[in-house]
Design a protein that fits this description.
Layout (H helix, E strand, L loop, with lengths): L11 H9 L6 H11 L5 E2 L1 H10 L6 H13 L4 E6 L2 E5 L7 E4 L4 E4 L25 E4 L3
Parallel strand pairs: 4-6
Antiparallel strand pairs: 1-3, 2-3, 4-5
Helix pairs in contact: 1-2, 3-4
Length: 142
């Protein structure tokens, strides 16, 4: 990953994106938005984003990373993908799609197979509605 100059004035794209999500574009939010959204769709853990931020000169705690990722998720900028009870990824692609999780190298990969189908249940429990369906297919290398 190349180093980005995070101490330059906030990117207009990051600022606009944060404002559209009704989030105040603080320095730390803008720096993290720059890292998250600058290169297409990505799957990142909080630890990976923390390491990337540090490598790019951003001074931000891991707790702030977690808080910001959850704020971005709540605002619709990210989608949290839980691969097991103690491990989550944050996906910059918020459209409906499913994932492979490769446990050998701890990577999350979008399922792009057009034949992949999910049958929705005919009904949900009383007084509920289906919000979304997340499928994570666990794989390992041969």
């Amino acid at each position: 990953m190349s180093k980005r100059k995070l101490h330059e004035p906030m990117s207009e794209i990051a600022t606009v994106r944060l404002r559209q999500a009704k989030l105040r574009p603080t320095r730390q939010r803008a720096e993290l938005a720059e890292l998250l959204f600058h290169g297409g769709h990505r799957h990142l853990t909080a630890d990976a984003l923390h390491a990337e931020a540090a490598a790019n000169g951003a001074r931000v705690s891991l707790a702030t990373i977690y808080n910001t990722l959850h704020q971005f998720t709540k605002a619709g900028l990210l989608r949290e993908v839980v691969v097991n009870p103690t491990h989550s990824y944050f996906d910059t692609n918020t459209t409906d799609h499913q994932h492979f999780y490769c446990e050998d190298d701890d990577t999350l990969i979008d399922i792009v197979d057009p034949e992949f189908e999910i049958r929705l249940p005919r009904s949900s429990p009383p007084e509920t509605e289906i919000k979304r369906i997340d499928v994570v297919v666990q794989v390992r290398r041969r």
